[in-house]
Amino acid sequence: MLFPFFAAAVFLVATVSANLRRYEYIKQFKIERPQKPQQVRYDPTWASLDTRPIPQWFDDAKFGIFLHWGVFSVPSYKGAWFWDFWKGPQPQLDVVQFMQANYRPDFTYADFASMFTAEFYDPNYWADIFSSAGAKYVVLTTKHHEGFCNWPSKYSWNWNAGDVGPKQDLVGNLANAVRQKGLAFGTYHSLFEFFNPLFLRDQANNFTTQDFVREKTMPELYELVNTYQPDIIWSDGEWMAPSSYWNSTNFLAWLYNDSPVKDKVVTNDRWGSETMCKHGGYYTCSDNFNPKTLQQHKFEDPTTVDKLAWTFRRNLKLEDVHTMEEIIAILAQVVSCGGNLLLNVGPTKEGTIPPVFEERLRQTGQWLSVNGEAIYATKPWTHQNDSATPDVWYTSTRADNGTVINVYAIVLTWPESSNLTLASPVTTASTTVTMLGYNTPFSWSPLPNSGLQIQIPAIPFNQLPSKWAWVFKLTGISN
Fold first, then answer.
1. Taking a C-beta distance cutoff of 8 angstroms, is the pair 341, 334 a contact?
2. Which domains, ranges and CATH numbers included, belong to the chain?
3. Which of 10, 40, 207, 300 has an alpha carbon 20 to 30 Å from 123's alpha carbon atom?
4. 63-67 and 339-345 strand pairing
5. Model confidence over 290-319: pLDDT tens digits?
């Protein structure tokens, strides 16, 4: 009768001993396991906010689509500043005459809102255009300087797309559509409004009061972030007052520390009269910012397909539209210098994207489908454009330690002879040259001091991989 008791005792001792060893192991594991680093918190000062790294996805994206759409799309004349050109402190004569010739004498700008119908607005079709364009993000004007909100904002009574005009949530519908295509979504938002009485009163008080910011600007921004969780906040309309008036640093501290998009959101530099090209996230510095030299800070070039306006214009002429050669050149130059291109088109009041704009976007996508390797997730190289052949712009891919893996020479103009001279690359015995979209390697010979001359065989036009620019991929380059 003692044997079962003895066996049970032995089992109990063994079990306790095993549990003790397991406890010690777990205890040891818990002690040695690395602690999760605490999230960096940013103070509401530019010194602190400017230390926040720009999320990597934005640097890798390189190409986005900008959309200027609002009540100004109804007159579709001159651009988004139409109201100010008509009724502002310095009215433009041609705009005044345009209104006199085409609208009744008592017509007001608010009367345009009911004509902003968007009856053909198909956000899924728009998203298909933008995805086919090769864009990685889309930025929509949620509110321009006219103050009209393209979402049913509770801070803009009867001056928003839910109450008047489209009678729908233009922002939310597009956000859902582009995200289904895998694109990031951004919200353009103007800090000021042309004729808002609260803003005009603050302005008259030399911006010593903040009634407009407290009751309009900031509530809208918080509403946009909490409702749509945008990947980009594209601020504008900052130039008349310092960031202290706009309360920008407090908003950005909340955005980076506690908002639902704190880890992924990207912002620009338009947060006060002193901030452009100095503070914020990436820099825009000016509209159509294409420096053509390497920049030390991440930047974006907001450029519009229509050379004369950001919005749709009914009197648009073909000569006003950037050619594909010009668009690809801008993209190559901007990416070579470390920036992104934000290419703008203006939809119509009915909610369509004009065919010439759609064509430009889809053709950009055709080019990127062949040459995107030289654009997406690339880094600037040691040279931006070639010293011997100026119409060549360089990008590169690099290993984690910074070593150059590939150099891409984006050739904007096809060589007139059968040779392409590149002075900037330093070749090695293992250098190879290919063209993206063309399988056969190219022969090359070194130049006397530095660089190489690429021998281009006779390639039938219909076998060229691109129509507008061509990318030569160089491996085994030592610089």
1. yes
2. 46-374 (3.20.20.80), 392-475 (2.60.40.1180)
3. 300
4. parallel
5. 999 999 999 999 999 999 999 999 999 999
